[in-house]
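**User:** Everyone, produce a chain:

**Assistant:**
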Amino acid sequence: MIVAIAEKPSVAKDIARILGATSSRDGYMEGNGYQVTWTYGHLCTLKEPHDYLPAWKHWSLGQLPMIPQRFGIKVIPQQSVEKQFAIVEKLMQQADSIINCGDAGQEGELIQRWVMQKAGAKCPVKRLWISSMTDEAIREGFANLKDQADYQPLYFAGLSRAVGDWLLGMNATRLYTIKYGQNRQVLSIGRVQTPTLALIVNRQKEIQEFKPVPYWVLSTLYRDTLFTATKGKFNSKEEGEAAFELIKDKPFTITKVEKKNGNEAPPKLYDLTSLQVDCNKKFGMSAEQTLNTIQSLYEKKLTTYPRVDTTYLTDDMYPKCPQILTGITPYAPLVAPLNLQKLPKSKKVFDNSKVTDHHAIIPTGVNPARANLQPQEKRVYDLVARRFISIFYPPCKYATTTVLGEVQPLSDDGAPDGKAIEFKATGKMILEPGWRVVYAKAPKTQDEEGKEKDDEEKVLPNFVEGESGEHVPTLTQKETKAPPYYTEATLLRAMETAGRFVDDEEIRAAMKENGIGRPSSRANIIETLFKRNYIVRKKKRIEATETGIELIGLIKEELLKSCELTGIWEKKLRDIEHQKYDAGQFINELKEQITQIVNQVLSDNNPRRIAGV
């Protein structure tokens, strides 16, 4: 008998239907030579400290650092989990072979490997590796099963991550709780959560310590168009008023009109982070809500595997694109202008070298009208569908106009008196919308208050060099602004680029290697910080609580709160997955770092503690 094991009952039922295992049993489906069973996510987990040594059950500084000689796993002590594991264990021990049908990613690999290890499975194992849950993808995946050994580096990376998080989380949390929380308030420390909290706290500190500096801007209104002085800011009111007096009642003259045409390529396809960013900006959805929604769309066979960090497709996806476009019938009016027999193929979309395990998130081609989608699912699906359609449209053609003007100060006799003061105005005009047609009726980005933002630049009137006329100058006092609070969108971007907010897609892609956390884990990290009352939501902004601020203030060990150092750890984990770094070396380095942190904190004689404890 062949045992296939999936990560969820719903996924197992889809697989069982395709395989012909139609007889329902307690905890599995059977038929056609297959037994298809499932986990509920994790059935097994790393052992707790007291499972290694009874003395580790009690929180004590004298027992730190806790570093097991060999890490072990155990079944999660919950009745439903233990019951399902017993069923899986029995099936695996009697199996002729096993097919690992877990989610095709690092976490999915770890979940099923632990179950097989704990169940004592001895038979050969194959791996189902698919990027969507359509019937066609499942059949194709079973026709091209992979060897389990091919995914050994993926498992090592997942195991290293889990062990690393255990070592740091268990030791640092106990260390800080006993030392600074007086053992009455748990101070949770994590390899990713603490640097993320530090990002928020440091930004908040910048804002609170910011002192606005006044400056003055000279501008003038000519033919209903606002021109701004190219000199920039005046640092004193007197300087600004002097310039104002020089141009008052003097004619404004257009000195240069420059028009440049440009092309704007369609936006890149979605990876998980960019989808979470857009959903937060457009709909106010949290990162976790977006992940749950796109996961639901994946399980409903409407979109491809969501936990991805690439915005590219592989070359073998190109011939499938016409069929996908044809299948999403609610978008037929947008697909109609495309030549499905000869779709454009750009290296900015199709590039094998930019894809490792899975390609970008796209529709599967299953008609969404047949699914009973909730409003939130419809919104997220709409983003994914429009983004996919837009990559086959031509670039948007636009014209940028830059107009320079000047006011020449004059003496009492009308002669030029000193240097002319120059002004500038810019505008943008869409000549051919190209891919922007796809977004003509799509939701716009919202600001922090939930109001729609209009990102388009104004279109200028036709100006002619040499024309001159009256104008209305103004001197406006302004203030320098503090950096903005993080929203979930900007926090996700900061996590992706190890604390450096980068908007440019190309640069951001290059920095992903050193981001903190995985795309699939960042939402959970942010939610954990909310649950532990380290951060709170205020409309769309994220603020640190007093507890969160105090915790980061207590931590003097840079290793625990540095985005750059955590980003380096993430890079090493990716290198383990790609066989460029040794898992054992990673764990040994982390053991040394934990020991160093424990010794540093234990030697701290400063009576620091969380207030109120």
User: Anything to note?
Assistant: The chain has 20 helices and 19 strands.
